[in-house]
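re the bet — no i am not wrong, look at it urself. input seq straight from the record:
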Amino acid sequence: MMDFWQFEFWPWVKVRSLFWWWVIKYRGKRHIPARVIFEQMEKSIRSLNENLLNAVGAEPDDLPKAERLQAREALMKAVKLEGEIKKMKSEHEQKS
């Protein structure tokens, strides 16, 4: 039950609270600047990359090869996603 609160419910509460804070601060959903959203996305991806790097670095020696590959693939996808977010951000900044 504690895992549910820590890993499912609490992150949901944090994300929704941040979103509604932005809605109040910027006076509506449509007025939230894209810059703020991209910064939060970059922050989340950066944290994900750090966590995956720590997970890959702390793998036990007796871990099956399939699980090792799965962790490394997740890390590669996260790095690729970070690049795509930076690309989207730069495209949006060029439009504005």
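see?? The mean pLDDT is 90. told u. also The radius of gyration is 17 Å. so pay up
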